[in-house]
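FIELD: query
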Amino acid sequence: MPRRGATALVEGGVAALVLGMVLILTPTGQARPPAHPASSGPRAGGRDEDTGGDTTGEVDGWAGQAIDPALFSPGACMAFAPTSGDRHETVFLDAGHGGIDPGAVGSTEGGQPIDEAAVNLAVQLDTMAILRGQGYRVVVSRTQDTTVTKLTPGDTSGGILTVQGAFNDVAARDVCANMAGADVLIGIYMDSGDPWNAGCVTGYDADRPFSAANLRLATLLQDDVLGALNAQGYDIPDEGVLPDTVLGSALTGAALAYGHLILLGPAQAGYFSTPSQMPGALIEPLFVTDPFEGSIAVSAHGQQVIASALAEAVNQYLSPPAANPAANPATDLRNLRLASPLYGPLWSGL
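FIELD: result
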């Protein structure tokens, strides 16, 4: 997904979310540490398995259920049951772009081409594997290199998405999340810009009834993913947690008036009628147009680091609030001892 202050789309084709389809310009350009070697360990998630037009499909042997095969592309909007336990909670993961929309493009330090859509899918499937093992039902926007919506003639022109086609494809992800009854929505995208642009950013919508939950989720995603990446020594800049109203420019007057990302934003009469109905956030951990960050993004190790951090953020978000310490007898005893001069020397360090 490109992040520029000016429109970054060619006429008739789109490589980003709809807000307007583009996000913010970031002036970050920090010196980079040497790249870490990518892990050659096994993948946690599946890859590009064609589920055909059936109501069930598999990703690396995982049986999935199509939410509505008449509405979505084959392999898109698929639900996967937990593989261990059952928390009775559903997480919706959106691997941005796909099919004839590759998203942003870049290259690694070694010159390997990068398509954002492929990176997004890999991270999404890795995250799904982790969350299913933790007891969550996971619904993914796509399991292969495809659009989410079933394209109509008006959605494409010259083999690329039209503006309306891109709008429809993003809106279909909201519809999928709603039909799945998801408790939380996470958009997984990558960033692009000038070669010196770098960093991790997370967006949320502040104009929804659940805006406080959106912000909490976005903050957890940003902190956990950035922290995990930088624990590897990558020194990824922190671009922060931002409302989606500052994350873009528009191609049409209607999009400009709307002013939100379709994946996260509210309904607007005459423009958008199927918004997501659950808290959500969209994260862009890395720039694929920065060769250093692109090398991390395309590596199995980098993708697994991001996926593990995304899963951790989900767990933190969906976990029940911590109990009131005052109601904890052990804590009460500790506080009593700290307040007593008799116990102070013994307990002050605990």
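FIELD: remark
The first helix runs from residue 116 to 133.
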